[in-house]
Amino acid sequence: MIRIIIVDDQRLMREGLSMILELEQTIEVVALGSNGIEAKQLVKRYHPDVVLMDIRMPILDGVQGTTQILAEHPKTKILMLTTFHDKELIISAMQAGAKGYLLKDMPSDAIVQAIHSVYRGGIVMQEDVTGMIIKELTDKNKKSENILDDAAQKRLDQLTSREKEVLGFLGCGFNNKEVASRLYISEGTVKNHLSSILKKLEIRDRTQAALFALKAGLSENVEEKK
Fold it and tell me: H or E element: which one contains 83?
């Protein structure tokens, strides 16, 4: 049973999501909150597996809430609830440690699938929003010549061509199975590449790897191949 907390300042949103998710036999909604402060208190009390948290809230927003929750409860998985236009906040939330984001108008079965994916250690990134983020970061990259600082660029240069390919797919939210299928390699090989990537880039998990891929422009190549 996956224990989750839903945090959203809109009562209809959090209660509606709760009603939908309570129908799932594998999910238990243990609490509801309306801002980041309540989220912190509820996580401390209930120790959920996953938190669904609105990115824009009064008192303490989702980005700040994510930062503070993970500082005290680093194993908690946080999924942001957002809209199509919150791209800058989405990047900030991912940098803070969120495991992905869900658009509020997504079908209920997609939300359930995303919760299961994050619970198993995956990341969740919506294709349309990811494409928009890639475009924005690419535009910034063209204006500033390079988004990566010198140290980050040196770490990137250590990757093999195959590792850069894998990293690009991570930036688009692909899981290991999907990357393996696209590159015609085994899932075990993808895991080995991922371990090497994390070590060379000196980052902690695949979420940070996905962000690195976006900033480095590697995911843009994946988008062009679709």
Answer: none
Q: CATH 3.40.50.2300 region(s) of the chain?
A: 2-124
Q: Cα separation of 133 and 149, whole Å?
A: 19
Write the CA distances from 148 to 49, 53, 141, 145, 171, integer angstroms: 33, 29, 9, 9, 15
What DSSP state is assigned to residue 54?
E
**Mean pLDDT, rounded, of the chain:** 88
Q: How far does the chain reach from its first CA to its final CA, in angstroms?
A: 36
CATH of 129-225, one of 3.50.50.60, 2.120.10.30, 3.40.30.10, 1.10.10.10: 1.10.10.10
The predicted-structure confidence for 41-87, as pLDDT tens digits, reads as follows: 999 999 999 999 999 999 999 999 999 999 999 999 999 998 767 77
- At 86, list the tokens: 């919150």
CATH code, residues 2-124: 3.40.50.2300
Instruction: Write the single-letter amino acid at 145.
Output: E
pTM: 0.76
Burial-class residue 114 by CB neighbours within 10 Å (0-12, 13-18, 19+): buried
